[in-house]
Design a protein that fits this description.
Number of strands: 16
Number of helices: 12
Radius of gyration: 20 Å
Largest sheet: 9 strands, mixed
Strand content: 15-25%
Order of helices and strands: EHEHEHEHHEHEEHEEHEEHEEHEEEHH
Oligomer: single chain
């Protein structure tokens, strides 16, 4: 499907982009373009791979002209550029608006103008019933996708979204912090022991995007079925893995944090279609003239539950150990700390 094609990844120097590179560098893909603002991380990737298949472009999705020119002759886009840290977005919400909402609109508008075949936009569980600036901005980014997907006649650019929970060991996630604290026998700081979060690996996040890429119709949303754990059990698992003497210290919730996350709202769950390990939520393609549409059946929202980290499969400590021990990043954390 990527034979000889050109793929551009916005925010490509992040954890997701690096995982895509590892997966595709030895494939028959024509070219991978890494589009980001971070010249240092681009240089690190350039030196690591030293491959003619990879092209690096310094640019910012906030700047329409830079993303528009970067998309010339591009076949596919994985849009991963975003501000993702909940506390920082709480303090600087307009920065989240500029990157997550306006940046997404820029990517999609440029993709349509440059006749890109398909764009997959990466979103987050925090976009469902959002209470923080990061989640609100990503929810609006999704709305931009759904709006553009049905606002233009005869547009050949397929636009869709993927939505996922915490990606284990990704940059800025809690697992690297817990490992660092445990390996130094420091207190492991958790917010709320009963707080739950979905758990998925970086490879699974790429698999979700590829599933969306291969199966998406205009305006679709894709979600992977994922297990979850409490923050307390996650900390206990890492203490066991590292044979640490660390104690768990409860510090309270940070700005804008939820007790649990939702991957699919109950309103979306009504329309969701199961596809093996994934849910697909088709676009609601009704127009503003609702009198043209009949209400088929009387669906009671009280009989439908949203898909949350509280009601999905809950991992115990031993299951968490088994899950995160398979992550290649775990050995890196342990070896790095030993060499300090």
């Amino acid at each position: 499907m990527f034979n000889g094609k050109t793929l551009l990844i916005t925010g490509g120097t992040g954890s997701f982009g690096k995982t895509v590179l590892n997966k595709f560098i030895d494939s028959n893909i024509g070219k991978i373009i890494i589009f980001s603002r971070d010249e240092k991380k681009q240089e690190e990737l350039r030196l690591k791979y030293n491959s003619d298949k990879i092209r690096f472009i310094i640019g910012d999705v906030r700047d329409y002209n830079s993303i528009h020119s970067a998309l010339r002759c591009v076949d596919f886009v994985f849009h991963a550029a975003a501000l993702k840290q909940v506390p920082s977005c709480e303090f600087y919400p307009l920065e989240a608006v500029k990157t997550n909402i306006i940046g997404t609109d820029n990517v999609l508008t440029a993709a349509i103008d440059q006749h890109v075949s398909k764009v997959v936009v990466l979103s987050t569980d925090k976009a469902v019933y959002p209470i923080n600036a990061m989640g609100i901005s990503k929810a609006m980014a999704e709305k931009v996708v759904f709006s553009k997907s049905k606002s233009f006649d005869n547009v050949k650019t397929i636009m869709c979204c993927t939505r996922y929970g915490n990606v284990m060991a990704s940059r800025g996630s809690v697992i690297p912090l817990f490992f660092e604290q445990a390996l130094k026998d420091q207190d492991i700081t958790i917010t709320d022991p009963e707080m739950t979060r979905f758990l998925m690996s970086l490879n699974e996040s790429v698999d979700l995007v590829l599933h969306a890429f291969m199966n998406a119709k205009q305006g679709d949303l894709f979600v992977q079925k994922a297990p979850a754990s409490t923050v307390d059990d996650l900390a206990k698992a890492i203490i066991k893995i590292t044979n640490s003497k660390s104690k768990i210290k409860i510090i309270g919730s940070r700005h804008g944090e939820k007790l649990y996350e939702s991957l699919i709202s109950r309103e979306e769950k009504i329309r969701a279609i199961e596809e093996g390990d994934y849910y697909r939520v088709p676009s609601d393609n009704r127009g503003l003239n609702y009198t043209l549409y009949e209400n088929e059946g009387n669906i009671n929202l009280n009989n439908v539950n949203d898909y949350t980290s509280h009601n999905t499969y809950r991992l115990n400590v031993d299951e968490i150990i088994k899950l995160i021990s398979r992550l290649p990043e775990v050995d890196n954390y342990i070896n790095r700390e030993k060499n300090w």
